[in-house]
Specification:
This protein has 156 residues and is of the alpha+beta class. It has four helices and seven strands; from the N terminus they run βαααββββββα. The strands form two sheets. The protein has a four-stranded antiparallel beta sheet with strand order 1-2-3-4, covered by helices on one side. The protein has a three-stranded antiparallel beta sheet with strand order 5-6-7, covered by helices on one side.
Length: 156
């Protein structure tokens, strides 16, 4: 018999911020651009001497992460749905998503990509759009493992 995973949770501010930063860090093209920008600035600093522009370019990736965190914080405070309790049921046929404002059945084919770290799963349904599933919502490691197997089986 296929297993279902049911979780209920409310997003926490820190999860929204970590998810945005995790998403940014895992975008390969952005990492390459910022890495090259830092290398360029360091080489210019070495050959042409100190200039505040080189320092800004070197610090830009860190400053950008701070801006991402700040934007996530503001979005969390302004967006009422961030405070809703999410009731999610993951089954073999679909994901059932229910809040005070939404009651929907989402087909697995909507999701295209999975990212995981020690805090959460990000289930992508667009290049920049994802569902955050915090690991704290699972009752134990076994339920988390069942969930991990299910999403890897369903999201290609």
């Amino acid at each position: 018999m296929p297993e279902e995973i049911t979780v209920s949770y409310k997003y926490e501010l820190k999860e929204c911020i970590w998810a945005a930063i995790f998403h940014f860090i895992n975008n390969f093209l952005e990492r390459v651009v910022y890495f090259l920008m830092v290398i360029y600035a360091m080489v210019c600093w070495y050959f042409f001497g100190f200039h505040f522009v080189w320092l800004i370019l070197i610090c830009f990736p860190v400053l950008f992460l701070l801006v991402i965190g700040l934007a996530s914080w503001i979005r969390y405070l302004r967006e009422p749905r961030c405070k809703d309790i999410l009731n999610l049921r993951f089954s073999d046929d679909a994901i059932y998503f229910k809040t005070d404002h939404v009651d929907s059945k989402i087909e697995w084919r909507l999701y295209k990509k999975i990212l995981e770290n020690k805090r959460m799963f990000l289930l992508y349904y667009g290049k920049e759009c994802f569902t955050i599933v915090p690991k704290r919502v699972f009752k134990d490691k076994n339920q988390e493992e069942i969930f991990r197997n299910l999403i890897h089986r369903k999201i290609q």
